[in-house]
Amino acid sequence: MGLPPSEPSTPGILRPIDKMRHSSIRRKAITAPDVLNEAPAYGSAFTRGLRLDFPNGITHLLISGTASVGPGGETLYPGDFRAQCWRTFHNITGLLASEQATWHDVVRTTCYIRDIERDYADFNTVRNEFYHALGLDPFPASTGIQAHICRSDLLVEIEALAILYREAGE
Fold this sequence. Notes:
Blueprint lengths: L18 H4 L3 E5 L18 E5 L4 E9 L14 H17 L8 E8 L2 H19 L6 E6 L9 E10 L5
Parallel strand pairs: 4-5
Antiparallel strand pairs: 1-2, 2-3, 3-6, 4-6
Helix pairs in contact: 2-3
């Protein structure tokens, strides 16, 4: 855009995009305020998830990286990796349920672990317990990555992709 990186952008530098020209895919933010707050409430610029409705009854649910955060935005279970894993799965379950989806609709996860060498065995144990309890078969495709997470007291964060198909009239 021609601005030096140290300068803030000037108002009006970007022109609004004509929404009618660009996409026939309907988009809707996914929220579950009973289990976790919205990220913009603490200054982050993302939604907890996005619902994309494609033609012919196909819907994708893109669940943003979700962690052990409570309804007030607070970190839950600081220092307790297993409890944070369970709360993270709980939060994602709430986001899915808000769109009438379940973990049976999840096809992929990306799992960010602060210290993968220390915590991966516990992560895999909790994930297996959770998936087996739900009767998932097959499990979602998944990638585990060691990463710094947005807050130093969060130890795990998971993002998910769910795909739904609804017949006309459902």
